[in-house]
């Protein structure tokens, strides 16, 4: 007896078992292993696609981040430029206001000087009239005659005219209108 026969294995049984095992292996491969391996391959492909999608998303996110950083830098530069423009505009406005204030101050000073000169001239004229009036009154007292108001006003105006013109000449008429030199000397001495 052979070793196989001692174990109770006959060649026909062995052949049927080998054929049955191969059929079982084929059935398992066809209906179980292929779908399982297909599912595993599909799962692996899905995982790879997910990782690829994540890499793409990460790259797009990085690109978007760089774009936002560039935009922020551009916005900051634009804001800085606008601030500098506003500062320049404010400086120009301040300079214009200062120049306008200076011009107005100069105009006020010129106007004040002009008004002061007019007031000085008016005061000077009034003072001359009073001095002439006093001189005429004194001359009238020295001469001993009283002058009428119209005559006195005419003499004052003539005197002011001669003094104002700068001729330095005295009026030719005397207080009484006689033209005597004594009366003129007396009036001039007084």
Tell me what you see in this structure.
The protein is an all-alpha fold and 190 residues long. The chain has a domain at 121-189. The protein is 86% helix and 0% strand. The protein has helices at 3-7, 11-143, 149-165, 181-189. Residues 167-190 have low confidence and may be disordered.
Largest sheet: none
- Count of runs of 4 or more consecutive helical residues: 4
Beta-strand fraction estimate: under 5%
Mean residue pLDDT: 81
CA radius of gyration: 65 Å
Q: How would you sum up the global shape?
A: rod-shaped
| DSSP strand count | 0
Residue runs with pLDDT of under 50 for 5 or more positions: 167-190
Helical percentage: over 70%
What structural class do the secondary elements suggest? Answer: mainly alpha
Succession of helices and strands: HHHH
Q: What is the terminal-to-terminal distance?
A: 191 Å
List the defining traits of the structure above.
190 residues, rod-shaped, single chain, mainly alpha, disordered C terminus
């Amino acid at each position: 007896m052979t070793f196989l026969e001692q174990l109770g294995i006959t060649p026909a049984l062995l052949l049927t078992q080998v054929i049955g095992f191969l059929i079982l292996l084929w059935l398992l491969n066809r209906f179980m292993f292929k779908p399982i391996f297909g599912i595993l391959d599909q799962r692996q492909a899905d995982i790879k696609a997910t990782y690829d999608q994540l890499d793409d998303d990460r790259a797009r996110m990085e690109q978007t981040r760089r774009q936002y950083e560039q935009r922020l830098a551009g916005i900051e530069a634009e804001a800085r430029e606008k601030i500098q423009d506003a500062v320049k505009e404010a400086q120009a406005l301040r300079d214009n206001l200062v120049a306008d204030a200076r011009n107005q101050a100069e105009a006020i000073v010129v106007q004040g000087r002009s008004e002061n000169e007019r007031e000085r001239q008016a005061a000077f004229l009034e003072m001359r009239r009073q001095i002439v009036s006093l001189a005429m009154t004194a001359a009238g007292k020295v001469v001993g005659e009283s002058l009428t108001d119209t005559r006195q006003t005419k003499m004052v105006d003539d005197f002011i005219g001669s003094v104002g013109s700068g001729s330095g000449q005295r009026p030719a008429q005397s207080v009484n209108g006689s033209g005597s030199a004594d009366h003129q000397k007396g009036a001039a001495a007084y």
